[in-house]
Structure formats: structure tokens, C-alpha cells
Write a structure and sequence with these properties.
alpha+beta, two-stranded antiparallel ribbon
């Protein structure tokens, strides 16, 4: 009779061990920290690549266009690298 009462009271389930519960919580915590760290590293790589690979304007010229509006012409760093190199190499010799 007592055994039947225990089964009904516990519903046939045994209580998990406290050590197992702590180990599972610790492994979840470590997994979450690893995921957050990976996201931070990926975000940092993305920011560095964006700042290094985006086009940078060296010179912007605004002036009147043929139709009477204002025209804007922009010269980017990638377009002027060779000219800058030539100027610097002439002064180094």
C-alpha cells in the first residue's frame, strides 16, 4: 500500500539529481557565451571589412551643368591610387 502511495504521489517519476541539473545549466551557459562571442567576432570582422573596402571620396566638385542645374562629380580613392603613386615616386628619387 505504501509503495502505491509513493508511486501516485511522485507520479512514477524520479527527481533529477542536483548535480545533473547544475551540469546542464552550466553547459547551456557556456553554449550561450560561445554563441555571443562568435556573433561579436563576426560583427567586428564585418565592420573592419566594410570600413576598409568601401569607396572613399578624395575630391568632390560641384558646378553648373549644361541644363542649368548643379552637377556633382566625385573622384574616389581607387581611381587616384596610380596617380598618387607616380607623384610620390618622383619625389623619392
Amino acid at each position: 500500500m505504501n509503495k502505491a502511495k509513493k508511486i501516485i504521489k511522485e507520479q512514477g517519476l524520479s527527481q533529477p539529481d542536483k548535480k545533473e541539473v547544475k551540469a546542464k545549466a552550466k553547459s547551456r551557459k557556456n553554449l550561450i557565451l560561445i554563441i555571443i562571442g562568435a556573433l561579436v567576432i563576426i560583427g567586428g570582422i564585418f565592420i573592419v571589412c566594410y570600413t576598409q573596402l568601401r569607396p572613399r571620396a578624395v575630391l568632390t566638385v560641384e558646378g553648373p551643368a549644361a541644363d542649368g542645374n548643379t552637377a556633382t562629380n566625385t573622384v574616389y580613392y581607387n581611381d587616384t591610387v596610380y596617380e598618387i603613386y607616380q607623384m610620390e615616386s618622383m619625389y623619392n628619387t
